[in-house]
């Protein structure tokens, strides 16, 4: 069976729960007081969707403003990005928009974008309406889920959705992402060969 | 119009001049042709002054002030009228020297002027403007080109009017740039003010006659007034637009009230962090970073404490006092960590890279540095009482 490597990058304001989302997804656990991420952290997780295996290489970036400049190192060449915000903080949703813009300009053109409205268990503190976020995601053609790392709602779902939305090409070759398939083109050329001489 | 209380001229090497001061300086000169008749080159230094449309030659600078009967320019050697003169750069067929101006006056005499590249370029531009020798300009050649922008170069490939027009625009722009007052001048006259954000701690403290910047004091006081038990205090990012708005108000010296509810807690803490990030030099000065890092790497707790204790008194006074004030505040935050979930370690991760950095650090070792940065801050927070009392 084929296995596909998926480089994924988590972005978003500090304290929205990026590391918590990753932790819930990878180890299915939750820490109520996870400390700030330094620089970035890396984890992997393999999942199976529709009979295909996907190995996520997850780059969980630090949200502290000081590290903003490092982000391109992590989203460069990423096949997918999850931009997380905190449904209880309007300003974190505003930051999503600037991340989207940056990724559209700097990221891989076919990057799969997903927006995660985290902490949706805190309904009484909500500042960002579900509909607003949904509309925005639709408008920019991004996947969208409201998630809760605490209760595990929709966490695995968002990764599954990403798998389904990944461009389907390249399942044959195991290395996906930044690999350029040179072979295909060459084959085409060979077929079109028209002048004499034995094909070598 | 610039009406500056003009200070006497800057050094000869500074490019920008006082707008009303004529161009002057020592230049190597040689006459090569006298009213159409060739003469032998004879290089010598002269002190030249460009006075309106006249290029005046002096033996030296002193001679400009010496009296000579019948001369409004002092004791001159030679006065050339540049009106109608042709001015060329680097005439290859006449001399192999570099950075040479060929000046052909309207009466048929020719002179060469030679100096370093920048000086000659400046004289060339000025003399061109004075002489009105712009219309007939074939574009300047050789080294000149390298200085001009890529656009000029590609455009000048097509001969004729467009090239001339460009040159015209260029010399006008250069003239405009030259007549702009210098930055120092604007600072002196209070048009450019040193702002609060992005300043040098020492300068800001001097300006405010304090050891701790007013904004730092006001911001911390406001945060404490609202209560440091706020969840995720200093970690959670504030609304960036609001933070910038606050910064603008502070920088413009507009009246701002940090107790106003328009600024939420995360905006205040975000602005304080921004203030420290934007300093020209970090609160932990780069020169001291290595010693701090070495200190926290010591084996025993005692050694760590002693080493840091030794460094602190050496810090610039403003840095020390501001640090003390900030850390005292942060220890209060830590005391509420049951509620705000910001333990020393967590706070140190946030503040480490905010209070110390090195300009030459690239992204790859930034993460490594962060470990030290936060370790330093964490240790100082834990040992605040021992270190600062």
Main traits of this protein?
heterodimer, A: 200 residues, alpha/beta, Rossmann fold, 6-stranded mixed beta sheet, 6 helices, 6 strands, 24% strand, B: 389 residues, alpha+beta, PH-domain like, Phosphatidylinositol 3-kinase, Chain A, 2 domains, 8-stranded antiparallel beta sheet, 16 helices, 8 strands, 47% helix, disordered N terminus, Rho GTPase-activating protein 15 (chain B)
Any overview of this molecule?
The complex is a heterodimer of chains A (200) and B (389). Chain A is 31% helix and 24% strand. Chain A has 200 residues and is an alpha/beta fold. Chain A has a single domain, classed as P-loop containing nucleotide triphosphate hydrolases (Rossmann fold). Chain A has a six-stranded mixed sheet with strand order 2-3-1-4-5-6, sandwiched between helices. The two termini of chain A are 33 Å apart. In chain B, strands 1, 2, 3, 4, 5, 6, 7 and 8 form an eight-stranded antiparallel sheet that branches. The radius of gyration of chain B is 31 Å and the shape is elongated. Chain B has 389 residues and is α+β, with helices and mostly antiparallel strands. Chain B has two domains: 108 residues, Roll (PH-domain like), CATH 2.30.29.30; 188 residues, Orthogonal Bundle (Phosphatidylinositol 3-kinase, Chain A), CATH 1.10.555. The longest helix of chain B is centred in the C-terminal third of the chain and has 20 residues. Chain B: InterPro entries: PH-like_dom_sf, PH_9, PH_domain, Rho-GAP, Rho_GTPase_activation_prot, RhoGAP_dom. Chain B: Keywords: GTPase activation. Chain B: One of its GO terms (molecular function) is GTPase activator activity. Chain B: Pfam families: PH_9, RhoGAP. Chain B: This is Rho GTPase-activating protein 15.
